[in-house]
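Hi W.,

Here's what went into the run:
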Amino acid sequence: MSRWKPDAEGRLIKAAITLFDAQGYDATTVAEITAAAGLTKRTFFRYFADKREVLFSGAHELQDRWLGGIEAAPAGASPMSAVSAGLDGVIDLLAGRHPFARMRSRIIAANPELQERELIKLQSLASAITAALVQRGQPVNAATLAAQSGVTVFHVAFARWVDQDDPAAFRRLTDESLQELRSVVAA
Amino acid sequence: MSRWKPDAEGRLIKAAITLFDAQGYDATTVAEITAAAGLTKRTFFRYFADKREVLFSGAHELQDRWLGGIEAAPAGASPMSAVSAGLDGVIDLLAGRHPFARMRSRIIAANPELQERELIKLQSLASAITAALVQRGQPVNAATLAAQSGVTVFHVAFARWVDQDDPAAFRRLTDESLQELRSVVAA
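Here's what came out:
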């Protein structure tokens, strides 16, 4: 085992997700995760406050990507176009992570405490998107409605994406979900 | 003080909300709540697991009302019409509780832990609405999108309702929010 370990964070995430999925989240210890990754507990706690945070450490990156897309949208874009531009960036980010996303969804679905955490993260994402739209001069109601709709479309499309086998289908599923949201609220 | 105390639950809620709002949620004890209501701690714990649950005990009634409205909607109603029918019942339920709702919103807005709890309750409401729509034969995606949209409209309209002085405005604010959601997602 070499002393220099590149991408310690990525290896810890991969080891944790694999163990959580194989033997259960509650049954897995930090010691097992670090052993599987060939790293120390000290290294683990440099990246994560606890084992739960391994599952949610990607939320920050996802949010940055989404907000970056909103920021880069043309000044005159409607709130929903800006939200969709942000979501486009998220789709690019997640495209290569289909097997990981699928395992992670399974782990979270099996644990009510993790489901609560996931919902809170999604709502915190919606709040950040609302704030970014208000920053662009949108009224707070339109901003809130567009942000919540964007997060709902993402959530529905994501569930469909991990539930099927084609990693490239995420964009199509997102477009379909947005289209379906339009029909549903219009009816 | 008479031994027979009608509506102990309602009096405990009223006393708790008033104290939380006046002196802060964290600073208020169950002993203070029961003293203000003229009741015992034993009575308190017959109704509530802890002081936090006083703020969320109405969620069950709200959800029952919403699901009852969905159940009573015509068989051929679109998912969004069924969701709106449920929301109509909720508006009737809350109509007389404007001062209470306003204090409660203020208490929750001041405390991140209560905000998390509120979001989880709203998401649990959205899940129950989704299940009720699926029960009526709606596909799960349309059901999820309609349920989330309904809860978003409710949440936005509720925030506007407690932020202004007319208790009778809730229905109008709900209609406006749904109309605005339609424009936002169509744009």
